[in-house]
Amino acid sequence: MPLTSFRFDPSLTRKFIDFGYSLFRKDTRMITHPSVPARRLPGKMGHSVYQRFLGLTAIIGLSLFIGVDLRAGDPSSGRFRPPGLFSLSSAHRPAAGANRFRLVDRQGGAPTDSDSEVRPPKKLGRAVLEYFAVIAVPQALYWAKYRGVTKPWHYRLTWEDQSERFFTFRAWKFDSNYFFLNWMHGPTGALYYNIARSNHLNRFESLLFTLGGSFYWEYITEWRNVISINDNIFTVLGGVPIGETWYVLGKYFLSKPGIINGLLSFLNPVLKFNRWLDRKAVPALSREPDPGWHDFRLSLGGWTNPARGRERSGLNLFTGVDAQLLSIPDAEKPGDLRQKVGSTLFSEMSFDMITAGGRVDEIGFFFRSVYVGSFRKNIGPDLNGYRFYVGLGSAFSYFKQRSVAFYDSGRIVVKDIQLLKLEEPRNFRDKFATAHVLGPVFDLTVRRGRFRARVMADAYLDFSLVNALALNDYSATRDITGAKTTLVYYGYYYGIGGSLSLRLDLDFGPLEFRGLFRGHAWGSIEGRDHFQKEVRDDFHLADSRTSLRLSAGYRFGTSPLVLVLAYENIGRRGSLKDVLKKETESRFFAGILFRF
Hints:
single chain; alpha+beta
């Protein structure tokens, strides 16, 4: 029986939980390495509440996956019914081919379908083949690199070693890799996700595909190493918002005529390739419904030198890309509608880069997807009125300043500590990468004549790689050799926390004003370092970052060009024991913005 034909079975779930719990209660012998004495694990799931929580979460999650009909989990299939949003009655199930957007009028009338949607057959076999084609070379290089190499922290290809990796949480650690390698697992997960999505798997199935791809790499490809907690989190929970936004925007450009759209469609080569393979079987795939609203912007201009005391020479340039797309058809056309949306209703991608003295000084990007929500609009024939949605989404953020020290985010081999020259104070520059796991999103637009206002707010639970701002000052007077591995070698730590943002857009005729505030706060995670036994001082760190950007623009008639002036203020705060570090920076921008 194919997996997608399963239905939820409480007895199966209970049996699987009992089996999994009994499995974790079995005694398992620890691996014997030359530097680690042999010992026996206790007859329970590890020593800590943390390990028990991870174990039970994994067991219950897997049991639910076995008991749930995967097709019913597809928000775009019409069978998805989030509690409180959709009826569970089978009488309201749409016919095959019904559109993913279901409209209900204000009086709560019967659902109607806005249009039909082609549902091509899923290509799971092709997706698996493409996945292995993508990882074949990296996997071969990895295996060749470590052939015949034995290190104390690696596992051997024996039953004892591998049974510990597969059946206990002893091997689950936060790894000690450098910053670039670790944050890149987010885009890697987006690649896995897009392989599945572009082969017509739904979002839930694509998430499972990404999870399977991440676990394959950790358990099979890197069989010598620990199971990296941070890699799995970034690949899956960071890869999904990047991948879904990448997929939605790529699908939009593929469905539009014109040279520019044709060129932009190559921004998602995975989707482009698979649509080319499907060009004869499902030609209607190229005819996607128009989104209800979109705003794509490309900006270029100059900026003032930052107030950080760094000397600059040459031209300072700012480049930015911002793309927002509301997928609900007819979102801004006259009507009075309530709509429960089970497919991705909003996608956003932004990219910023500033250069100073002819070199890239800062770079950052942001991806966001809103997966399910409730949409409401009341727009009159004169187009005056409002629209808003409330939904659940996730996001991914990245920011990095140019390194000035050779060890900052560099690929220094852990254990070559003498190369770091720790007798000198550290000189790390700011950086972070964050998987905004899940949170509420609110988006309201009001229009009255020539005046238009938009308010957008969101909040998320975060898992992050965070630069320790206070570390530079702390290292000037104290030894840091016994601290967290990534902190000593690369200046960052693994943290959990939260983020929120508030956006305000005002338009009046040719004038436009924009305001964007973002705030982040993180605290470090202790106790799961790759080399935890060597961490003598596992102190706690805390960091926060706020940014406020205000801009004013003037549109030249019907031209896509906008003249923009902008101000930005960034505040950073970090604490490490009794050291508190604060930084504030203000700068100005002026340039041209192109809307398309």
